[in-house]
Write a structure and sequence with these properties.
The complex is a heterodimer of chains A (273) and B (257). Chain A is of the alpha/beta class. Chain A is built from 10 helices and 10 strands. Classes of the chains: A alpha/beta (273), B mainly alpha (257).
Chain lengths: 273, 257
């Protein structure tokens, strides 16, 4: 297992995070450190609160207990103005892309630049084309979101997320529902952008193979807790039984194949199903 | 005792929604300075909320005025008072039907569209996306729609009343033979600027605030699924219509005593 990064190395530092939906604990004392410049993956089965974790890091949700620091700032102690200032240095790629449907590809990527800078039209045009070039969609600048495939929409959203040259990008299930080519493109893009622009990347996913291919560090979450963390290979080799089942995609193990039910014979002859 | 618990839960849920609606209104009002600096955002919404509602308002106004002319003529002629047809048509429209029917039509056309649009923006994470781009969706998306709704309603009501008066004129003067000079002169002398017109405008401004607020809140507060958006649009029309009719009674009682 890898050692936790020091304070200077960690861009995001989560301590004692607790978050409840009603009486159900989504996170019950989670500690996570996300090192600067790395690709860190947060993995776990569906419904473990991976997207919730990104929303907590981005300050869209408030934890019931614990702290989340991003670049040394306690996200939930910030004023609204300071939180928005911090968010200008954070990009987020939503699962759906979250493109503004009434704006073209160009206008979507230009949107944060128009909102937060006073750059002239010519400079904005150059920047937008450069960002679109980085994701391979410069030629699609005049398309509307409804004309894009799912993979293209996510790449446009990625171009928009890097428009303000953020220090970190959070990816929410970037590979879900993608065909193999789009998936391969996204995998390479995430790694390339991370290394070229020295961004810190947080990837939330349950696509084990793709995520493990680009991640430097993986946190595996289940039942509201971090059950293991480390480099992908280390987790495969030395992780616990649960982690190995998850990483290997095994149908049976600590997480049983069968949903809890009565004895089959009893159910067939006397059950209520 | 179960019914008492249910009643309590409903009361708490209603209070919570009312609180959220008020907080949302405060949030939107805080976005006014930004809107003044960027009037283009308002113009875009005036087009979709106001201008695109003109057709249904215009057509309805003409027909309501025609029906008023027809019904008014048959009743007034029994008393030999058909000369006052213009007053009856104008007073009915300016005081009541203009603001109320416009608000009901507005809720059905623009209000439901607002709820659906905002609800879908929520369901497709566009509002969350704006937040994460450090753009306040209440200021950027909702405030222009609120102001556009408030500005549009009195203008649409005025258009409804004006076209209704011409509808009544067409039936009364054009088809039933009421004297044209009497139609207009009676209207001019009997309709009071403050008592009738200004009070009618005040009503439509109040309805504009209420209908747009309800529509925006329902969209913003909806469950972000297709079913949730569908329920939000239905609630917008139902709540707006009930609010308009209830408020109309209160305002009428206050204004015309």
């Amino acid at each position: 297992m890898s050692q936790a990064p020091t304070a200077d190395e960690a861009l995001v530092r989560i301590r004692g995070l607790k978050f409840y939906r009603g009486s159900r604990a989504i996170f019950d004392g989670v500690d996570i450190d996300i090192p600067r410049g790395s690709v860190t993956a947060i993995m776990g089965p569906s419904g473990t609160g991976k997207t919730t974790l990104l929303k907590l890091i981005g300050g869209q949700l408030r934890p019931d207990a614990g702290t989340i620091e991003v670049d040394g700032q306690d996200v939930h102690a910030l004023s609204t103005r300071d939180l928005y200032r911090l968010r200008m240095r954070m990009g987020m790629l939503f699962q759906s892309g979250a493109l503004l449907t009434d704006l073209s590809v160009f206008e979507n990527v230009a949107y944060p630049l128009r909102e937060h800078t006073r750059l002239g039209a010519s400079m904005i045009r150059k920047l937008v084309l450069m960002k679109l070039e980085a994701v391979g969609l410069r030629g699609a600048w005049n398309l509307m979101p409804s004309e894009l495939s799912g993979g293209m929409a996510r790449r446009v959203a990625l171009a928009r997320a890097i428009a303000l040259d953020p220090m970190m990008i959070m990816y929410d299930e970037p590979f879900t529902g993608q065909d193999p080519i789009s998936m391969g493109v996204l995998v390479q893009l995430i790694r390339r952008l991370n290394d070229a622009a020295r961004i810190t990347s947080v990837v939330v996913s349950h696509d084990v193979a793709e995520t493990a291919e680009i991640a430097d560090l993986i946190y595996v979450i289940s039942n509201g807790r971090v059950i293991e963390s480390g480099a992908p290979q280390a987790l495969r080799d030395t992780g616990g039984e649960w982690t190995r089942q998850f990483m290997g995609g095994l149908p049976d193990g600590p997480v049983p194949f069968h949903y809890p039910a009565e004895d089959l014979e009893m159910d067939l002859f006397e059950g209520h199903a | 005792m179960e019914w008492l618990a249910r009643l309590g839960r409903s009361g708490l849920s209603f209070s919570a929604r009312l609180g959220r609606a008020n907080l949302l209104m405060l949030g939107m009002l805080r976005g006014l300075p930004q809107l003044i600096r960027r009037p283009r955002l308002l113009l875009e919404q005036l087009l979709s909320v106001g201008v695109l509602t003109v057709l249904i308002i215009a057509v309805s106004g003409v027909f309501v005025g025609m029906v008023l002319g027809l019904q008014g003529y048959y009743i007034l002629s029994r008393f030999g008072a058909e000369a006052t047809l213009g007053v009856m048509v104008a007073a009915s429209l300016v005081r009541e039907l203009g603001p109320v029917v416009t608000a009901l039509l507005f809720a059905g056309r623009a209000g439901s569209a607002l709820s659906a649009e905002i609800g879908l923006m929520k369901a497709t994470e566009q509002l969350s996306g704006l937040e994460m781009m450090a753009v306040n969706p209440e200021h950027r998306v909702l405030t222009p729609r609120l102001v556009a709704g408030i500005l549009s309603m009195p203008l649409l009501a005025a258009m409804f009343s004006m076209l209704g008066v011409y509808g009544g004129w067409f039936v009364g003067v054009g088809l039933l033979g009421v004297d044209e000079g009497t139609y207009w002169a009676q209207m001019q002398s009997q309709i009071d600027w403050y008592e009738d017109v200004v009070n009618g405008v005040i009503k439509s401004v109040v309805f504009g605030v209420v209908c747009t607020w309800i529509a925006i809140f329902q969209g913003y507060d909806c469950v972000p699924t297709s079913e949730g958006v569908s329920r939000a649009t239905t609630r917008t029309v139902v709540h707006s219509s009930l609010a308009v009719l209830g408020l109309d009674f209160v305002l009428t009682a206050l204004m015309f005593n």
